[in-house]
């Protein structure tokens, strides 16, 4: 998989001067500010937590996609009809492409 040009994680939420932001936990650099002009404080905090989880989510999606595709290639993937694996694979591929900036 192609490594995206993003600040590597882990990221963490920080609160300074009444503002919510994100910092690169390893380097300690500020990477984003999350404001809540139209959101409640709880929504701003939730948005910051979701964004801070992005590097972990990206890595998890890459790993999971590799495992699923390998299982399918080897014939070790049996779906009982309770899910649509093709849609799940396409959504995961879309997420990864979007995170890399490869989609509109």
Written overview of the protein:
The protein is an alpha+beta fold and 104 residues long. The chain folds into two domains: 1-52, no CATH class; 53-104. It contains three helices and three strands. The chain has helices at residues 41-52, 54-73, 85-99; strands spanning 11-16, 19-24, 30-34. It has a three-stranded antiparallel beta sheet with strand order 1-2-3, covered by helices on one side. Helix 2 packs across helix 3. 6% of the residues are buried.
What would the keywords be for this entry?
single chain; 104 residues; alpha+beta; 2 domains; 3-stranded antiparallel β-sheet
Return residue spans where pLDDT drops below 50 for at least 5 consecutive residues.
Answer: none
- The averaged pLDDT comes out at 80
Q: Which structural class matches the secondary elements? A: alpha+beta
Biggest sheet layout: 3 strands, antiparallel
Radius of gyration: 17 Å
Beta strand %: 15-25%
State the helicity in percent bands: 40-55%
Intertermini distance: 20 Å
Neighbour order of strands in the largest sheet? 1-2-3
Shape: elongated
Q: How many beta-strand segments?
A: 3
Tally of distinct domains? 2
The secondary-structure element order is EEEHHH
Number of helices: 3
List the helices and strands and how they pair.
Blueprint lengths: L10 E6 L2 E6 L5 E5 L6 H12 L1 H20 L11 H15 L5
Antiparallel strand pairs: 1-2, 2-3
Helix pairs in contact: 2-3
Characterize this entry briefly.
By secondary structure, this protein is α+β, with helices and mostly antiparallel strands. The chain has helices at 41-52, 54-73, 85-99; strands spanning 11-16, 19-24, 30-34.
